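Sequence in, structure out. First:
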Amino acid sequence: MRHFIAAASLLALAACGLNGTDRNADETSEADRTANATTESLADTMASRDGADMASDVPDIPDSEERPVMQAQVVLDRQGFGPGVIDGEMGLSTENALEGFQEANGFEVTGEMDEATTAKLDQWKSIPATRVVRIPSDWGTLEYAAIPKDAEDQAKLERLGYQTLDEKLAERFHTTVEVLKMLNPGGQPAGKAGSTTSAPEPSPSPTESATAPERPVSTFAAGQIIRVPNIGGDRIAPGAVDDPDWQQTLQSLGVGTEQPNVEKIVVSKSESTLKAYDEAGKLVALFTVSSGSSRFPLPLGNWKINGKAPNPPFTYDPRVLGNDDDSGKQQLPPGPNSPVGVVWIDLSKEHYGIHGTPDPETIGRAQSSGCVRLTNWDAARLAQMVRPGVEVEFVA
């Protein structure tokens, strides 16, 4: 956003606890710390297990449908060509992802599942569109609360965390709550007739006190077995992340640490895309973005990345945005529901950056306040690909 503090590039965070999570550092259990220190992947218990046996407490429930579009979205997402929200529908973000995949492979760029593209994607046809997981039991102990509408009230919070378990779950699997409901009719994983869906009762939600703020109701619960999009690339290599806050953020978004190195970024206003190229000039990633508006147009030209701020605080200034708001400038806490999402990538163009968003379904469909917005999971992935000095070109 144009009104974000330039000091964000100095990584001066006003965060509290583990910024990417819904608990504080001192609330992390010994079991969690031990698991993180000994497992091959530091991702959570719902991590993809391609080619490996399922967890012993999760039943094998074949999907009731083939879901070819969702399967293609899952593969594209794993290959670095983000389809945005994984929903099983052909839309702008999926078409952009296909175009990026086609360009990277030297195919005709059509944005369609043509013969050559389908044949290439078939090498990953063994990867199913969905998988069944159990929601971690400790998710039932996390704090979820509605976020106030006014910036002045938001500024009083310690963090802008997830409002519901449903919202947290949807971001973990790069989708929406509506898609999760579709994949789990009646609260059960969509499955073929005769499949077993038996599972322990979900963990109860924390008891509300008389003075506690109202908390939105979730459809899903801790301990529940559900079907989710089969996103991958969520392995977090031991020792790859120095900042425990950022590691927790990556875990919560299902984003792994094994990402390509990027030397140049090109953002297209007309195509609503961000393309990332490696040292050899090969396209290695593409994400759909929202960028600029009539009031705050994308500043066309050549810039560079100054730095990165994971889980940054945010300065809300209604005068800069022209909002009819007399609350004045407010310092908002970090969190996935921050106006800049989970990360700010600072640019050499003053007050401009690349960042996440609390509204992934709006990417490519709504204007920004001048900056470049991505889904939180795509922004987190991009942040690991770049470093200070990487070239950034904004084109019409």
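Second:
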Amino acid sequence: MAEQEKLLVPIDEYLKAGIHIGTKFKTRYMDSFIYKARADGLFVLNLQKIDERIDIAASMLARYAPEDIIVSSRRENSWKAVKAFGDATGIRIFPGRYPPGILTNPALEKFIEIKLMMVTDTWPDRNAVKDALMVGIPVIALCDTNNQTNNIDLVIPCNNKGKKALGLLFWILAKEYLKRRGLPEKDLKLEDFVED
């Protein structure tokens, strides 16, 4: 019971959202985050490790002002959660296509300098990760059991494909970011982050 008290949200919230349900494939990169394989072949992620990594990510994000962070997400299932996260925190988001050269080409009108990047999936968001690597900024990535994690500074193991899982994760991060930055905590509703 003591373990459950330390979690950012009650364990039932994590379970209901399916944040721990992985894919039928696993990479060696994600082995240390996998709790078990189910009879149906799906790998299950360790909830304690998911919670620990969300906590670390919240602390990492809170070190930076909103204008110093971007979140990139090609994965359509995450767009509602990512937009709600951006609205709540003021952090710049790129749901959909990541604009090429935005971090690497100072000649671009939309060129920006940032200090931290977060992506929802290392494969669809590989161009954003590549740009972050080129300019030498840390990357936080949501990684499912089938993701590779090279060039990632902080892996958050999770179901990065499910709308409920992504909604819960970004809701927690938004609440923790505001709290840890000492910003006024808005009344953030989980349903604003989750697709119906």
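Remark: Residues 2-181 form a domain with the Rossmann fold fold (CATH 3.40.50.10490).
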